[in-house]
Amino acid sequence: MSSAQTLWWQTGIVYQIYPRSFMDSNGDGVGDMAGITSKLDYLHWLGVDAIWISPFYPSPQADFGYDVADYTNIDPIYGDLNAFDQMVKEANARNIKVIVDLVPNHTSDEHQWFQQARSSRANPKRDWYIWRDPKPNGDPPNNWFSYFGGNAWELDKETGQYYLHLFHKKQPDLNWRNPEVRQAMYSVMDFWLKRGVHGFRIDVMPALIKDEQLRDNPLNPNWVEGDPFWLKQFTLYSEDQPEIHEITREMRQLTEQYPERVLIGETYMPNPRLVKYYGDNLDGLHLPFNFGLLSFPDLTAGKIKKTVDDYEAVLPPGAWPNWVVGNHDTVRIASRIGAARARIAQMLLLTLRGTPTCYYGDELGMVNIPLAVEYIRDPAANGSPNHGRDPERTPMQWNSQPNAGFSPSGVTTWLPVAPDYHQENVENQQQDPTSILSLVHSLIELRRATAALNRGSYRSLDNVSADCFVYLREFENQKFLIALNFSEQPQHLTLPEWGEGRLALSTEAKPVGTITLANLTLDGTEGVIIELV
Ligand code: GLC
């Protein structure tokens, strides 16, 4: 593929901002739009090409914005449309594009569509949601669970029917079989595209359309007490129905009316079902999120190699890959695999073939912190300190001032700041050439400057070492070898066929220099990028 054929969202890097936690400009303890604007210079310095901002729409915040009460406005906590426009303008002035979060599967129960729908069975908006009569014994219409625990149906006593909510009961599911719903959501997309956004991250894409008969999901016979409850049943009828691909095509057609926009789907799906979301003729989503690297508490070289190779093997021709190692729903990478290996994970993310998405704070090695019960905010936690996603959503650590520079001193932030902020913050790490932030900065700089890394081919090497993942990235006559040692012990690699190379970057901040591939020694948990000559 020549450089002329690659688009910004292919060669570029996406950075995810959780707006409540990025920067609080008005001292109310919650991040906001003006806060994001004030940190665009940092993002420009870091070198990202686009920011994806988790929902900032008016919302009762039952699921922190993933319960939208108005799709075409900004929640006053975050500012207003002017503040949004200002943010987009300032971002674009720094060559940063803005991707917004679209939550089409469900609204808030406080959205006026739902208010109307629940007002009577005869209301014209009734069919915009999924209503069913109770079973004769009063039970819910089927056995589907809610991802936040319990049954996915809530009885509306006034009208005597249950409505479906695959998430919180304050997040009723829309009925995507109703053409008016589709049109309404496409108008929402058009509203934001006209406002200058460069794309959407689409929430729970596979769930949008359900089995027409709402059949019971089969139970998982292998489920045992202690496994996550959502593995209790297979989501055969509640997700990933064949008709979903009609919807991705419709969204794609709409988006194509604007140049170089991108559709990124939240698609927690195993292969090969995942890659179906590109569309049979690459006419679906541009980037169905590939979460293959999120599931490892034990990031071993062999498992990673298999994950990458398997995904590369099932990608349809011409489909552009993408990678993620952290997001607002998953334990932070540094907590999953430890500080040392988090550095290799960044090298992995930023040298694989395909668009990387970086979760805010992972560039600092931010960790999950244990939270006392009174700090639990996430509905998915169900009141337990052992569950929920709050610990990966704590405020960004900007400096060593009180509240980490996120909120002014004396303010109670919406979630506590992680106590390691005194050392681990942007200001300190920018000054320390050995910090993970300096490493991520260098990785991004190298990736941006190197066609082999941002658009080249990928090939893994077999049988090099059980503890190292070694692969090549090539473009025209550029050739880079990446070797990542996931073990704590030093590893000696013998790759005489690759002659000599130049060390371009090591996770250990070693000086660049000549390397003989016949005798390559990696320190424990070291990763290297070597330009082959
Ligand atoms: C997605 C979001 C998650 C949210 C859920 C319901 O999985 O990433 O944060 O709770 O959808 O909207």
List each distinct ligand once: alpha-D-glucopyranose
Separation of the first and last Cα atoms: 22 Å
Strand order of the largest sheet: 9-8-7-3-2-1-11-10
Helix content: 10-25%
Number of E strands: 19
Q: Biggest sheet: strands, sense, closure?
A: 8 strands, parallel
Please identify the structural class as seen in this structure. alpha/beta
* Contiguous runs where pLDDT drops below 50 for at least 5 residues: none
Q: What is the residue-averaged pLDDT?
A: 96
What share of the residues does DSSP label as strand, in percent? 15-25%
Radius of gyration: 24 Å
From the spread of the alpha carbons, the general shape counts as: globular
What is this structure, in a nutshell?
Helix content is 23%, strand content 16%. The protein is α/β, with parallel strands linked by helices.
Written overview of the protein:
Helices cover 23% and strands 16% of the residues. By secondary structure, the chain is an alpha/beta fold. Helix 4 links the parallel strand 2 and strand 3 (97-102). The protein binds alpha-D-glucopyranose.
